[in-house]
Write a structure and sequence with these properties.
The protein has 495 residues and is of the alpha+beta class. Helix content is 18%, strand content 39%. The chain starts with 7 loop residues before the first strand and ends in a 20-residue tail after the last helix.
Length: 495
């Protein structure tokens, strides 16, 4: 943004390192930046950006052309310390919103997102929130310059807390931290049992009217759990599925083939997709008469394309699509003449930050999106199966909702803008597990298989083996290990 007359932005600084990220992103747009304390009434300003949670002067709310922007925190948004409401409530997700303050104690939400709460560390949670949102004001100003107006946001009423109430919130923090640590220990004493199911409808119909009770859960003969299903429908009712198989004894995921024969029986066979590290999420691509697969191999720090020599068992390495990148649940689709890759980075908030890459060819080279990460939201970022195009040409993208628990539910996003420089999507549907069914604790992957749809679900189990292992660590003086990686799938940490 380099207008004839640079936009004038006054910033009220909180005195934290995060201020630098916001200010530098604004400077990159070519705006004129002032300190709010030196800007008078603000009537000659285009924008006031307040990075504090202190009260706003009434005359400043009506002065600037684009308004008075600030950050709000908590699932119920308010002007408070970053992450404090979420840690006090023990939530897995910590929320942040960029908002325009309005007269009368109201605000208009301009953008929102969430990160994974570090439930035992307010400082780390705060850093994650501020880092995630630091570029939002600059990106919103760039959008204003492009579209001429800000998007219509939701108006909310802000909670009014007295000074005594704010002090009381801080006083609750020690008890909340102790409770959160106890919950993390309990988390380490559980195990997730995943299984896969079939819905006898194409994926577009499923999201229109999802009925979790209609899932036919498969009894796969496997000593462990099966998750991340991707498949191909064959003639006469046959079905071939690639999935993550996680044997209890090995404690490492591998790619397994499951074949449903015409008589309905199931057969499990190994595949040549095998490393000495964890593999999962075998994303299948059919292109120009060939079958390809991109399994998640984050420990290898690459996104690797494999080609089927003999589907489903024999595979050959084809091309490294991204090197030095620990891709999580990588999903690709060709849409409007380009290939698009949706993924997350295991090294950086892999449940919250969505990254997009694009290419003219499946084998690359792949170029990062100009806005990466294009969003940061525990409720709807991490890929969760097959993106698909509806009959009207609209692109939909399944994503995980990890805000309550890892793999707790599915969000179906409707992609509104997708170019190398722009990205916007909105929630089209939210799919939750059947609380009375065999997998009441989560849904994690939704993928198309011809006229069928594959899905996986989980049940939490409190088992003697994890309890004994945890007690053994404590007796050996290794109690802090309880606060690291648990027994759950993909070793998801409770923090």
């Amino acid at each position: 943004m380099h207008p004839d007359k640079p936009l004038a932005v006054a910033v009220r600084l909180a005195g934290a390192d995060s201020d630098v990220g916001c200010v530098n992103a604004l400077r990159a747009l070519g705006v004129e930046i002032r300190r709010l304390e030196e800007s008078g009434s603000g009537r000659d300003l285009d924008l006031i950006l307040d990075l504090t949670c202190r009260p706003a002067a009434p005359q400043h709310l009506a002065g600037p052309r684009f308004g008075y922007w600030t950050f709000l925190y908590g699932e119920t948004p308010e002007r408070t310390a970053p992450g404090l409401p979420d840690i006090l409530s023990g939530r897995r997700a910590a929320f942040v919103r960029l908002a325009r303050l309005l007269p009368g104690g109201r605000a208009m939400i301009l953008r929102e997102g969430s990160v994974k709460t570090v439930t035992h560390s307010p400082a780390r949670t705060r850093r994650r929130l501020l880092e995630a949102a630091s570029r939002w004001p600059a990106q919103m100003l760039a959008r204003l310059a492009r579209d001429g107006a800000a998007p219509a946001g939701t108006e909310i009423e802000l909670p009014a807390r007295s000074r005594i109430e704010r002090i009381a919130l801080g006083a609750r923090l020690p008890a909340a931290l102790a409770r959160n640590v106890a919950r993390r220990i309990k988390h380490d004493l559980t195990r997730e049992r995943w299984r896969i199911g079939v819905i006898e409808q194409p994926i577009g119909r499923v999201i229109e009217a999802f009925n979790p009770a209609a899932i036919r859960w498969l009894d796969v003969p496997f000593d462990g759990f099966i998750a991340d299903p991707f498949g191909r429908q064959g003639p006469n009712g046959s079905l071939t599925v690639l999935a993550e198989g996680y044997p209890w004894r090995e404690r490492r995921g591998r790619i397994t083939a499951i074949e449903r024969r015409q008589d309905g029986t199931l057969a499990v066979t190994p595949t040549s997709l095998s490393f000495d590290t964890h593999l999962s999420y075998p994303y299948i691509i059919e292109h120009e008469g060939e079958i390809y697969c991109i399994p998640e191999s984050a420990a290898q720090r690459r996104v690797q394309l494999f080609r089927a020599v003999e589907f489903p068992g024999r595979w050959a390495p084809d091309r490294v699509l991204l090197e030095g990148f620990a891709g999580a649940d990588t999903s690709v689709i060709r849409h409007r003449g380009r290939w698009w890759m949706f993924t997350c980075d295991h090294a950086d908030q892999d449940e919250a930050k969505l990254l997009v890459f694009h290419s003219a060819d499946l084998r690359g080279p792949w170029t990062p999106h100009a806005l990466n990460p294009v969003k940061c939201d525990m409720r709807s970022s991490r890929p969760a199966g097959s993106p698909f195009v509806a009959d009207d040409g609209t692109l939909y993208r399944p994503a995980q909702d990890c805000s309550r628990v890892y793999g707790g539910a599915l969000t179906i996003n409707r992609v509104i803008r997708l170019t190398p420089e722009e990205f916007e999507e909105e929630v089209a549907a939210h799919l939750r597990p059947d609380p009375a069914g065999p997998c009441p604790d989560g849904l994690h992957t939704l993928s198309a298989a011809g006229g069928l749809t594959l899905i996986d679900g989980k049940r939490h189990e409190l088992l003697p083996a994890p309890i004994a292992a945890a007690l053994n660590r404590m007796l050996r003086g290794r109690a802090p290990a309880l606060f690291g990686h648990g027994q759950n799938r993909l070793h998801q940490s409770a923090s």
